[in-house]
Amino acid sequence: MKSNKVTVNPSIHLVAYSEAFALNKVAIQISTEIKIAKPDNIGSIIAYNLIVGLAIELYFKAIMIFGRNGIITKGHELKELYKEFPSYIKSSLEKYYKESIKEDESIINIVAITLSEKSPNGPQQPAIEKKYSTFYEAIDAYSDEFVRSRYIFEDVKNNEWIYIDYPFIYGNAMLLALRNTYNDLVDKKQKK
Fold first, then answer.
1. How confident is the model at residue 27 (pLDDT cuts 50, 70, 90)?
2. 60 Cβ contact partners less than 8 Å away, ≥ 6 residues apart
3. Conformational region of residue 72, where left means phi above 0, alpha means psi within -120 to 50, and beta covers everything else
4. How many structural domains compose the chain?
5. Are the beta carbons of 156 and 162 closer than 8 angstroms?
């Protein structure tokens, strides 16, 4: 069986972090422009989800490279990558995540789209209220978002509805938790 571990130059964590941070800034820019999901914003909402998913993956890889002396795990499924972290990393992520969300603000906007030759009725299934109280719950929900968002057009069928979440508060909170955790690790090592 082929290993899903790869060894890279340990200094490359700086590149992974720089990519993640640049994407992080774009995600924040999109989220400040779009506060509520509506069909007119569908392209930006999908782009936000894709960018956040990729930024999270790159932050994970930067932390792995830095913390494991260049050893990373291949793959895009965020939940699986998250499971590889030791408890002190997970605790840091949870702490920073919880500090950045407020219960009264934690709304997930959802937009539904369909393809139809005539104007269809609204979706049969009402929007589902969601809430991600922990970093793990958010990562679990976002686990395949990078891949899903890239190919979302393949999921839209004639006369069927597809729901697209726009969890900008949670997405931004995950990015902040990852950025702070990475910076803490680097700062701690530099102080030694």
1. very high
2. 78, 81, 82, 178
3. beta
4. 1
5. yes
The predicted-structure confidence for 87-140, as pLDDT tens digits, reads as follows: 999 999 999 999 998 765 556 666 666 655 555 555 555 555 677 889 999 998
Residue appearing with tokens 């509520």: 36
Residue-wise pLDDT for 134-156, tens only, equals 999 999 888 877 777 777 767 66
Longest CA–CA span in the chain (Å) reads 66
| C-alpha dihedral (77, 83, 88, 91), degrees to nearest 10 | 70
Is 153 a domain residue? yes
CATH of the domain at 152: 1.20.120.330
User: pTM for this structure?
Assistant: 0.85
For residue 76, tell me if it sits in a domain: yes
> Taking the CB of residue 2, how many other CB atoms lie within 10 A of it?
5
User: Is residue 124 domain-resident?
Assistant: no
Query: Both tokens of residue 14?
Result: 């700086």
Nearest residue to 173 (alpha-carbon basis) of 142, 147, 148: 142
- The boundaries of the domain holding residue 79 are 5-119+129-191
Establish if 94 belongs to a structural domain: yes
- 90 in Cβ contact with 82 (< 8 Å): yes
